[in-house]
Fold this protein.
Amino acid sequence: MRPNPPAGAALAPVPDRRRTASRERAGHPPPPSGARPLELARLRPAALVCLLLCSTGGALAALALPAALGHTVDRLIVGGPVPWSGLLLCAALTLAETACDAGAAVVGTSTTARLTAALRTRTVARVLAAEPRRTHDVPTGDLTARITTQAADAAAAPTTTAGSVAGALLPVGAVVGLLLIDPWTAAALLLGAPLLIALLRTFTRRTADANADYQRAQALIADRLTEALDGAETIRAARTGAREYRRVLEPLGALADHGRRTWAVYGKASGQSALLLPLLMLLVLTVGGLRLDAGAIGVGDLVAAARYAGLAVGIGSLTGALSSLARSRAAADRLDPLLALPPVPHRSLGPVDGAPGRLELRDVGVGREGRPLLSGVGLVVPGGSSLAVVGRSGSGKSVLAAVAGRLMDPDTGTVLLDGVPMDGMEPGRLRHEVTYAFARPALPGRTVGETIAFGARTASNEEVRSAAREARADAFVALLPQGYATPLTDAPLSGGERQRLGLARAFAHPGRLMILDDALSSLDTVTEHHVQRALAGRAGSSTRVIVAHRLSSAARADRVAWLEDGRVRATGPHHVLWADPDYRALFRTDPPDASALPGPDEPPSSTTARPDPADKAANR
């Protein structure tokens, strides 16, 4: 099995290929990142402008309130009629500040939710549109964490930035207000400004580091948990649950350390501000009192100065915004490699209409980390025929299956479908022509029927039922509570039943090329026989490439390609290759006597190979 890299590993580029320069000239440069605040802001400009107006309006109302309050206090002190206009103005400013803050909260929350959905959709689209092996360096759990939790963190940046305008406007406006009331009082406040700035800078830097480390540890736990869930049956059979439990939770200590570190940064900043801010307030009030005693300012001015000083030193909203922005930046750094994935390049070519599905591989080579997986593979599969691909674990069978249907582009050589290079075909059109079934198929869709219908086009109800019959899935589907309408969550499926649903999905979307990557490995002998008959019924209309472990699968194919160490050792009909003892050894059977040797028309279907569950992982 391919070992997973560390959860924080960056996406490694695919080895350079001779087509890279031509692809860039063809107009397929790597797409720009889309997780930065400015790029996300372009998705919801009107909402962000509304948020900016609300937050700014609330800040302006808060700044106007001390001046109005001070003026009203002065009028009350001098006596005379009650200054109802001043009192009403103060009430109006208070209501305006409250309304603007409430509006900013509503708009900010809804906008963040929509930006999160858009960013997740964009990230998933990039991952699905890219060549699959470009994402191999990001483990599944880490990928899930990036698309879910960290996408939400990154998407919060535009609203946090727009909302933090109020956080920055309040201290600046408060200093200006103090300068207008009395420059000496303002100077007393400004004495502590360098300390406040240093405090905020240190807080931001340490918070950013702690958040980045926390997200990496979180992704590692998610990846190990995903691995454990995928291998739950193996873990249960091996009775290694306690060991897996410890392995999954082992990074929890580091996660807790990073979390405590984050709170320590908060605590230290809070402690320093708890000491600094009251001292600043005391200094401002002391200077203001002295100025009042000297007759330079009035009582109302002192009230206003006290309010402005409180606004100026109230950095709680700023520290919260800076912490959120630091978390967003760390999340954006982890999303950038996914959003920079280039889509599968093409030249807008299409398959030849009415062609039989002739598949040709010319001198195909694939390598990874300096190790060749395929070397100089040349194969021709006539249209409408079947080819079984056999070989030992690690021989490159699944890699060949991926290259044959363009789930992976070769580093060297060319793959053609009816004479048209696959790397020139528009991916959407190609997916209508190539159908896949896997050993462990993913099952998208809400219900069993939707899972079978899922594909490049949505299959009709009749196509779904016909495909289920061909895959021998109709019998167990009929036993489900609601048949084809049964939600997948209410349909406990065995490995063989999952494979049959995957096969049914392939049968429901017939194309000119069908690739079965070990898709019969969990079927019983009787079910496999019926599925093989259904595959044989597509002779002439669909070309079939079958990665095979079982002797019966190889025996029923028109031709067999025997892979060894990434090279084609031999091709030919199964009964011809059977004469080679090394070929017979692939299937781990006892040497048969002469009377039991299979002929071209009567393969020994009762003799089956024992599938190696590690083959697919090793080949990939």
User: Anything to note?
Assistant: The radius of gyration is 34 Å.
